[in-house]
Write a structure and sequence with these properties.
Layout: E1 10-16, H1 22-32, E2 36-41, E3 57-60, H2 62-69, H3 82-88, E4 93-97, E5 101-103, H4 114-123, E6 158-167, H5 173-178, E7 191-193, E8 206-210, H6 211-214, H7 236-250, E9 254-264, H8 275-294, H9 302-316, H10 322-340
Parallel strand pairs: 1-2, 1-4, 2-3, 6-9
Antiparallel strand pairs: 4-8, 5-9, 6-8, 7-9
Helix pairs in contact: 7-9, 9-10
Length: about 350
């Protein structure tokens, strides 16, 4: 029932927003050393990168990005630079973890292997069409509960694995400003499938996905004027999450949430300066969510689903704000890039 994933089928993609990656790479070395690692340097970062030795690293710079995409309206700055790594990868699976995260410990104090858990999530079926109340029925020590239809127990392939975070959870600027001392210290040892038809806020901090199945739907679509480099100042991953969830629902693929956890550090910055900018984003997000809840796509692959979705975004959300018109443009350009640059060899 599970799919065997080989090490040579996996790329790890890291967005380099700060020059010193050595502590990050050394912390993850026990788990990432067997894999090819794509490091995409933020095009706004001028300093040379500091890297750890004896790892299979491929560093992508602004010059290399420009050589591939030439002129583009897509904004690859900040956290969005990671999408370029998704584009140029030639592997079936992608794992991506933010630079401010290190391996987490479970409730016994054992350091956990987030890379391995993501691959387990992707290699075992999901249950998007009927909820199993005993969590993930494919994990050792559990199974389907009484009443779960036998005809549905083969499950569906998993397209996306969304991991979580200990310490600094991915809260928005408002929550962090009101509750500055709030930390997530609960390691919950479970994995759930997000039901089909249900939207979710995907955080790009700790994710893995089947690139061949859903890669075109992981895209840098929405950007706001004055956007910064902090997670709470962006919505690019939230928008990508809306898109990939609609694609997964259409293609009968599962989305999992829960394990693996990472330990997320703080850089000491405060969210108060972002509150005014955040207010406008929240309003626009409230406009976008009903659209995504009701919209349906009919294409048979991820790239065509995104192109179809882009047209619907332009036709409906484009009337609300030019931000959505620009998002539709970026989505269409992204599909074109994926069909030329992003195709697998």
């Amino acid at each position: 029932m599970a799919v065997k994933i080989e090490e040579n089928e996996v790329d790890i993609v890291i967005a380099a927003l700060h020059p010193n990656l050595t502590p990050f790479l050394e912390a993850w070395r026990p788990f990432i050393s067997p894999f090819h690692i794509i490091i995409v340097k933020d095009p706004d970062l001028n300093s040379d990168l500091q890297l750890a030795p004896d790892l299979d690293l491929q560093v992508i710079t602004k010059a290399e990005m420009t050589a591939v995409v030439k002129s583009t309206k897509i904004n690859f700055s900040g956290h969005s630079c990671r999408y370029f790594g998704y584009l140029i990868s030639r592997k079936k699976y992608i794992i991506s973890i933010d630079q401010d995260c290190v391996p987490a410990k479970d409730n016994t104090g054992t350091v956990t292997n987030a890379i391995q858990q993501h691959l387990i999530n992707l290699s075992t079926p999901a249950t998007p069409f009927f909820f199993n109340t005993l969590y993930d029925p494919y994990r050792p020590g559990t199974d389907f509960v009484r009443g779960y239809p036998f005809s549905m127990r083969t499950g569906a392939p998993c397209g996306l694995s969304c991991g979580l975070w200990l310490n600094y959870a991915d809260f928005d600027a408002f929550t962090q400003a009101v509750k500055p001392s709030l930390r997530n210290d609960r390691y919950v040892d479970l994995v759930l499938t997000v039901p089909a038809g249900t939207m979710m806020p995907m955080s790009g901090i700790n994710i893995a996905f089947d690139r061949l199945a859903v890669g075109p739907a992981l895209l840098p679509g929405v950007h706001f004027t004055g956007e910064g480099k902090k997670r709470w100042e962006t919505l690019e991953d939230i928008w990508a999450g809306f898109c990939v969830k609609k694609v997964c629902d259409r293609l009968a693929l599962g989305v999992k949430s829960g394990l693996p956890y990472v330990w997320r550090e703080s850089d000491g910055s405060k969210p108060h300066g972002s509150l005014n900018k955040e207010s406008d984003k929240v309003k626009l997000l409230d406009e976008a969510l009903p659209f995504f809840e009701k919209v349906r796509v009919s294409s048979s692959n991820a790239a065509d689903c995104v192109a179809e979705l882009a047209g619907l975004v332009r036709g409906e959300l484009g009337k609300v704000s030019p931000v959505f018109e620009e998002a539709a443009d970026a989505m269409e350009e992204w599909v074109g890039l994926w069909k030329t640059v992003g195709v697998s060899e």
